[in-house]
Design a protein that fits this description.
Helices cover 73% and strands 0% of the residues. The chain is mainly alpha-helical and 441 residues long. The N and C termini lie far apart (48 Å).
Length: 441
């Protein structure tokens, strides 16, 4: 009797069960969350608020995110990560559901919207480090860059679709119902993440408490020059780019480009660029990960410069597209380096320090954007943003690890560096020291 042919694989070998669940859940939450960002702003305006109130609600989310990130990272390395993720999703679901009920029922108070948005920030602070650690522990082998690129492409595509769909739904059915959809999306994503399998992750040995875990993560963070230098770089880059795009961009669009439509087109071009960059990184695997990624940070200065001129809409959209491609090249390279170099049991804590450094200066930069425009003018302020991106990125290239850290493909033992260890102590920076990116520490 002839043996039946085996069924063809429906997914590549590197896309295991956990990876598939994580990607599907990320698509669901990004579809809901990007629409909810638009809905929250219009909920504030519909309740009689102004632009300042919209900013307060946005700040109410950012502040607890900054305050709880490090604790969230330590908790995610101490408890099963999928439990932390599901609990965070549950908190986001409940806060968005209550927000939706208040908006649908009548006029919510500003303090209520700030409180509920703040709870969402707390959920994100615990979810982000756990999710990053879980994703990095779910892939191994030579195709990790492709896995990260596909994951980011799925997230960026869902974000684009969610923003477009959310805008249409706000106009058609009102912001309250869009918030309700986001709550349902968090519930569905949490259900998917509850099926994650963590049996392959070694059980954590009892530690000395939360503060001890935070100190251990800090030693891991500061002991790697490539890590802390790039996080310091991005604390400036994210802040000034965020200020340029969230404060100056809409103003330039209103005064010079014809209104919100052209600015929406430019942001859409950036989103399309991120998808294009992820597609590129599914095929391109640069040998010197951080060198390639850091060189692609320079184009992030271009949108600020384009707004300073300002370029016509078509030129601005082209610049935004290129910067979207560039940031995805950096993002995939960065995730691959983190996966390759950081011990599995410390991934969430180190990711939390990364997140903290990246977002800590954003509120300050956005708050200073208005005074800077008054003091120096809009054009000089935007040129200053572009110059800062170029200067801090050029400075990072002086760090030997950033120039020399190399993609590994065969296994060698890699020691965890001491806080005072030199760059040469990290075996991964050697072109001849190659190990699988699935190292578990």
């Amino acid at each position: 009797m002839t043996k039946p042919a085996s069924a063809p694989r429906r997914r590549p070998s590197w896309a295991g069960r956990n990876y598939t669940l994580l990607t599907a859940a990320a698509i669901v939450t990004n579809l809901g969350s990007h629409g909810a960002l638009i809905a929250a702003a219009f909920a504030v305006l519909d309740a009689g608020g102004d632009g300042g109130d919209v900013g307060l609600v946005a700040a109410a989310r950012t502040l607890p995110l900054v305050l709880f990130l490090l604790i969230g990272g330590a908790v995610a390395d101490r408890l099963p990560r999928h439990h932390v993720m599901v609990a965070a999703n549950a908190l986001n679901c409940v806060s968005q559901a209550v927000f939706a009920v208040l908006v649908i029922a009548g006029e919510p108070q500003l303090w209520q919207m700030m409180l509920l948005t703040g709870l969402g920030g707390v959920g994100q602070a615990f979810f982000g480090p756990a999710a990053e650690g879980m994703l990095m522990s779910s892939v191994s082998g030579e195709q990790v860059s492709r896995a990260f690129a596909l994951y980011r492409m799925a997230m960026q595509g869902a974000g684009l679709g969610g923003a477009a769909l959310g805008g249409l739904m706000v106009a058609a059915i009102g912001p309250g119902w869009v918030l309700a959809v986001d709550a349902a999306a968090f519930a569905l994503a949490g259900a998917l993440r509850s099926f994650l399998d963590v049996s392959h992750i070694p059980e954590r040995a009892p530690g000395g408490g939360l503060l001890s875990d935070l100190r251990d993560g800090w030693r891991e963070f500061t002991g790697r020059p490539w890590l802390w230098s790039i996080v310091a770089q991005f604390s400036v880059v994210v802040a000034v780019v965020g200020a340029a795009e969230s404060v100056f961009g809409p103003l330039v669009a209103r005064d010079e480009l014809g209104g919100a439509g052209p600015w929406g087109l430019a942001l859409g071009a950036f989103g399309a660029g991120t998808v294009g960059g992820a597609i590129l990184m599914m095929r391109w695997k640069p040998r010197r990960l951080l060198l390639a990624g850091t060189l692609c940070v320079f184009p992030l200065a271009a949108p600020s410069a384009a707004l300073a001129v300002p370029l016509p809409v078509a030129g601005l959209a082209a610049v935004m597209f290129v910067s979207g491609v560039a940031i995805e090249v950096f993002g995939v390279s960065w995730m691959t380096a983190m996966h390759q170099e950081i011990p599995e049991e410390k991934l969430s804590r180190v990711s939390a320090y990364d997140w903290f450094g990246s977002v800590a200066m954003v509120p300050l930069a956005t708050a200073l954007a208005g005074p800077a425009e008054s003091a120096f003018g809009r054009g000089p302020s935007l040129w200053g943003c572009a110059l800062l991106v170029v200067l801090v990125t050029a400075a990072v290239l002086f760090v030997p690890d950033v120039r020399n850290l190399t993609r590994r493909t065969t296994k060698v033992p890699v020691p965890t560096p001491r806080a005072e260890g030199s760059a040469e102590a990290i075996a991964s920076t050697s072109a001849d020291a190659e190990a699988p990116v699935g190292r578990r520490g």
